[in-house]
Write a structure and sequence with these properties.
Number of strands: 6
Largest sheet: 6 strands, parallel
Oligomer: single chain
Bound molecules: 3-methylbut-3-enyl trihydrogen diphosphate, magnesium ion
Number of domains: 1
Number of helices: 8
Radius of gyration: 18 Å
């Protein structure tokens, strides 16, 4: 561990670790462009950041980590990029499953995965099954995920069930994130100040942290910096 990591880790209040961290992993394309590489090189480099952040969150005792991996809007990208992203997902799952199992990680997804290819769904199903008895970090992958679509889908299922009384809890239970606490902290890399249709309902009182660091450069130190910043926040939830 680098001395900077050690120093930041020492300053972290272990009693104030967020239960649920959500990340908009952005900037892969720009990272690649800066180096004169095709965009997919940036996505591949980003997979290394995923690995490190998942590990770090597991070690810190974070309950859930939600990663925005593919949005409902990302389908408009060139077909080769979409295909490359799906391939990368399958490869990463294959490569990381053993280590995830050893470190106690569970896997779940949010978003409409029925639109993903059979290969992707099979691999997801296999790894979700392999990790289902673990008790550590919940790694929640947002795949073909959109916040508005998720809310609509919840409303539709309430209508189908003929539910007459709806409150916040009932709606929450019909979202893909049912059973997860709302994110305490949302991190967005690459300096963009927008939600891009991510967890619209769930982020009502989430603390936001935006860093200029591009996702493929995002490492433990950057996570620790985000957590230290989060720990200085006063969460008032409308109170005084
Ligand atoms: C985020 O990086 C990864 C996905 C959206 C899948 P981008 O690919 O959006 O990178 P930029 O924003 O173009 O730099
Ligand atoms: C958000 O990033 C989606 C993911 C990180 C998967 P985008 O790069 O797609 O968002 P916009 O287009 O800049 O809003
Ligand atoms: Mg982007």
């Amino acid at each position: 561990m680098s001395s900077r990591e050690e120093e930041l880790l020492r300053r972290l209040d272990r009693k104030k670790i967020p239960r649920h961290i959500a990340v908009i992993m952005d900037g892969n394309g720009r990272w690649a462009r800066q180096r004169g590489f095709p965009r997919l090189v940036g996505h591949t480099a980003g997979a290394k950041s995923v690995r490190e952040i998942v590990r770090a969150c597991g070690e810190l005792g974070v309950h859930a980590l939600t990663l925005y991996a593919f949005s409902t809007e990302n389908w408009v990208r060139p077909a080769a990029e979409v295909k490359g992203l799906m391939k990368l997902l399958v490869r990463t799952l294959q490569r990381e499953a053993e280590e995830l199992e050893r470190s106690g990680v569970r896997l779940r997804t949010i978003g409409d995965i029925s639109a993903l290819s059979q290969t992707v769904r099979d691999e997801l199903g296999r790894v979700v099954g392999q990790l289902k008895d673990n008790r550590g970090l919940i790694l929640n992958l947002a795949l073909n995920y959109g916040g508005r679509q998720e809310i609509l889908q919840a409303v539709r299922s309430l209508l189908r069930e003929n539910v007459k009384q709806v409150d916040e809890d009932i709606l929450s239970e019909h979202l893909d994130t049912a059973g997860l606490p709302d994110p305490d902290l949302l991190i967005r890399t690459s300096g963009e100040f927008r939600l891009s249709n991510f967890l619209l309902w769930q982020c009502a009182y989430t603390e936001l942290y935006v860093t200029k660091t591009l996702w493929p450069d995002f490492r433990r130190v950057h996570l620790y910096e985000a957590l230290l910043d989060y720990q200085t926040r006063e969460r008032r939830f409308g109170g005084v």
